[in-house]
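Q: What changes when EPU is included in the input?
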Amino acid sequence: MLYKYNLAVIGGKPLCGEVTISGSKNASFPILAASLLVDGTVTLQNIPKVQDIINMLTLFGSMGSKISHVDGNIVEINNADISIDNMQYDLIGSMRGSILILGALLHRFPEFQLTLPGGCNIGKRPIDFHLDGFRAMGVNITQQGDVIKFSRSAKLSSAKIELEYPSVCATENFMLAGSLAEGTTTIINAACEPEVVELANFLRSMGAKITGEGTDTINVTGVKQLHATEYKIMPDRIETGTYLAAAAITRGKITLKNVDYPSVFEIASQLIAMGVDITQQADDIVIDASAKLQAFDLVTGPHPEFPTDMQPQFCALNSVALGESKIIETVFENRLQHIPELNKMGANLERTNNEVYSSGGNILTAAEVEATDLRAAAALLLAGLAAKGETIIKNAHYLSRGYESVFSKLSNLGATLRYL
Ligand code: EPU
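A: The predicted holo structure follows.
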């Protein structure tokens, strides 16, 4: 579970030095879920030690998965003898990624029940796309309050599933379910996010037949059996983007190691447009943000549009950059709770519905602020790093959901932080 803490940040210093990027949280969720599709031992390298993934592994443990942490970020997982009898349902409600076990469990058990997934409070986040798609694959589904019952009388069948919106986890769930279903499942209006491509690569390494990942139509032809594999999970693109933004807001110069540049292309391009110097060197990125930042408009959207998971951090950036700008959030209806908090630090942002207007050129000052979710916490942390004086971030523990060793990584870059 999430251990609560507040954080004091003494800002006003440019970050400098090196930071190594951890494995991707949002790629680890579906890959862990995919390990439920095989009996053998799956070895995963670069699993991030973040709270959401620790909770996912604890959830697996409660199902009887045998998990060994070989070394830091390497996990061996064997799901041969799982059962749902002692599943820790409260963990399902603690994260959104838990919905991804559904596509795999439907192959393992003809009948079971789950509670609704949780996750950051950034919108309603319904699961209707998931349920509609699984119904099309032959699953009977009934819901009473927070409890959903699933049953099937035969093997999952293939289906043509057209998503109303390119939902990331729904796309991944149908890839997982389709891998062992009878026939070819087609996902239309599929999400194109790098984590979807990563899941396809992982499933293929287990023997799955998938084509079209990274485009809006994915075909998954079910095979009789998948086999165990060893796989290294891609670097986290939102952690990468957040450190790039941290360098930019503090006018620092840092090297990010173990980076997947193509997956952060949209974020890097936006920063370059703002006047930051970014150079790619193999798996590293060097960012030099000594020049003044110029504010820029952006609109979030499904990949390859600008990622919603970086919108709060860019609200902080635009508030200090020169010139007027507008940020429009189109993915989640309640992902602007950081705006009043940033304003307590002098950001001077105006929110109208899902739009944030910035007049730009503000000097941030330390204040006591409260984080409401993971990426809002990241935005406040960036603002705190830029502001002179001591900023207190209440509920800073949200950071631990998605940023591995954030305290020590930032301290190594010269930041002054204190747990409260
Ligand atoms: N939606 C529905 N019905 C559904 C599913 C989604 O209406 O059944 C709507 C959502 O309410 C939202 C939109 O579709 O308005 C997009 O949601 P999506 O399903 O794509 O989001 P997700 O799969 O739940 C993943 C990431 C999020 C990231 C989004 C968008 C994981 C575990 N989570 O969520 O990550 O913001 O895609 O890229 O992969 C984060 O890391 O901070 C985070 C929130």
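Observations recorded in class: The chain is about 30% helix and 25% strand.
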